[in-house]
Design brief:
Layout (H helix, E strand, L loop, with lengths): L1 H10 L4 H24 L2 E8 L4 E6 L5 H17 L7 E4 L2 E8 L2 E7 L5 H19 L4 H6 L1 H11 E2 L2 E2 L4 H28 L3 H12 L4 H28 L2 H4 L1
Antiparallel strand pairs: 1-2, 1-5, 3-4, 4-5, 6-7
Helix pairs in contact: 6-7, 7-8
Length: 249
């Protein structure tokens, strides 16, 4: 009897009649989501405080400095004049403005008229989550004193105004690797400076470090440079000690 039950279970095949429509629906939903994300393109992003101080600006369209200042001034005044319970979407010129306030900072983005406002809000929130994860309870001072990190996180998240990476884990991993590389380069610069190497030699060594030269070969190269400098100093000292004064002059 057990064999019959086992045989009947083994002979059962999944019903393709309901699997096929489900797979079609899933593929359609996935293609729609990907098309929406691929067609989405942000024009620019502004971060400013309640006092109207600009903390970060990222432009994805070519504009002159004068036009950028004019747009920034108009948008900051417009957003700050709105009441807290008003909608976070507004029409401005031929664009749509999407903004959201987090603590003392306003995150303001401009998108095309056909783009989705909710996706823009989600992108703003994801960027805030990345900042909060990196700095640990991020505040306005973190962005003021570490603005280059804020720009780097934004560049890892958005490329050309489009979301290139939606995974927080992957973005933070890329940032950690960049921080580690920067720490290694800073340490090597301090080491080269303590050895008293000339600037051309330091530049050449830094190029080798960035090109991925193995650490052991780099240490051997530094040891050879140190020995050559010591050899030159010993020769100079021996020359001053044993040569006659008449020949020295």
């Amino acid at each position: 009897m057990n064999n019959g039950v086992s045989a009947s279970l083994a002979n059962q095949q999944p019903d393709a009649d309901w699997l096929s429509p489900l797979s079609v629906c899933l593929s359609v939903c996935l293609s729609v989501c990907l098309s929406v994300l691929s067609s989405f393109q942000m024009q620019f992003m502004l971060l400013f405080s309640r006092q109207g101080k600009l903390r970060l600006q990222k432009w994805y369209v070519p504009l002159s400095d004068r036009e950028k200042k004019k747009i920034t001034r108009e948008l900051v005044q417009t957003v700050l004049a709105r009441k807290p319970k008003m909608c976070s979407f507004l029409e401005w010129r031929d664009l749509k403005i999407v903004y959201k306030r987090y603590a003392s900072l306003y995150f303001c983005c401009a998108i095309e008229d056909q783009d989705n406002e909710l996706i823009t809000l989600e992108i703003i929130h994801r960027y805030v989550e990345l900042l909060d994860k990196y700095f640990g309870s991020v505040c306005e001072l973190d962005i003021i004193f570490n603005f280059e990190k804020a720009y780097f996180i934004l560049d890892e998240f958005l490329l050309g105004g489009e979301a290139q990476e939606t995974s927080k884990k992957n973005v933070l991993k890329a940032i950690e690797q960049a921080d580690l590389l920067q720490e290694n380069l800073d340490f090597q610069m301090r080491l080269f400076a303590e050895l008293g190497l000339p600037s051309p030699v330091m530049s050449s060594l830094m190029c080798l470090c960035t090109d991925g030269l193995p650490s052991l070969l780099l240490l051997l190269l530094l040891l050879l440079l140190l020995l050559s400098s010591l050899h030159a100093e010993l020769l100079s000292a021996w020359h001053l000690s044993f040569c006659p004064l008449s020949t020295c002059h």
